[in-house]
Amino acid sequence: MSSVEILSEHRTFGGTLRYCRHAAAATGVPMRFSLFLPDGPGPFPMVTWLSGLTCTEENFTAKANAYGAASDLEIAILAPDTSPRGEGVADDPGYDLGQGAGFYVDATQAPWKPHFQMETYIVRDLLEAVGAAFPVHAGRRGIMGHSMGGHGALTLALRHPNLFKTVSAFAPIASPTRCPWGRKAFEAYLGADERRWREHDAALLIEAGVAKGRFDDILVEQGLADNFLAEQLKPELLEQAAKAAGQKLTVRRQPGYDHSYFFIATFIADHLAWHAAKLRR
Ligand SMILES: N[C@@H](CCC(=O)N[C@@H](CSC=O)C(=O)NCC(=O)O)C(=O)O
What we know:
EC number: 3.1.2.12
Active site: 147, 226, 259
Oligomer: single chain
Family: Belongs to the esterase D family.
Strand content: 15-25%
Bound molecules: ligand LAXINWYW
CATH architecture: 3-Layer(aba) Sandwich
Number of helices: 10
Mean pLDDT: 98
Low-confidence stretches: none
Function: Serine hydrolase involved in the detoxification of formaldehyde.
């Protein structure tokens, strides 16, 4: 179990936002995360937010406008970095691979394998470290994310039964095996055998019935002015998969909204309320 170092602490919306660092066995390098806790003894239900390409643990804290709602709803929000970082950690000149683009999978291929173990990092090291250091409820966890992080939220929830009770996503990469961002990352991290890719594809997992009996609904928010919608995101693939599997999935399409945190900030309170209501049951 790793200990958590608090790097800074900020009062906000009647709660406390902390930036933290801890040693993580999976990635082999120190990892950073942010955690918002409402005031009070807890233990609080906790929603984990997974950010998208190019993000750190700071994009959500600065831009999502989430903490007023989180305070009112008395839920914690955990937001990790999107990859291992630092000297000695592999990288790529592209914004969509390497540092800042971990895709929430465990890499099996060189040069990524030694540190890019983001799935195990999130579901084991991060949740254990936060659970040991802060008053959060292990049985009341939700997960959500944006774009690459929407793919991460959906696939981690689907692949790890009993870890998360609720899952939602903003403009998620619905089917990474069928879009350029996903295909590039999966080939690099998981290798050329596309059968391994399918295990990390939210639409294919839903179609295979993995969500049935576990999630009474899955909520997806999608802006219709999102530049990445047609080529990278494809929410219709989630809808087709859910229909085929008899899984309830709600896609809310929002005219005029783009891919940015302005879109996220507009609808984050709705998602937090949706998670909070289910996590309280
Ligand atoms: N820089 C790239 C696009 C990068 C981008 O849009 N990143 C999004 C997530 S995209 C999918 O995972 C993001 O959240 N950026 C951070 C922010 O604060 O907005 C390009 O130029 O196309």
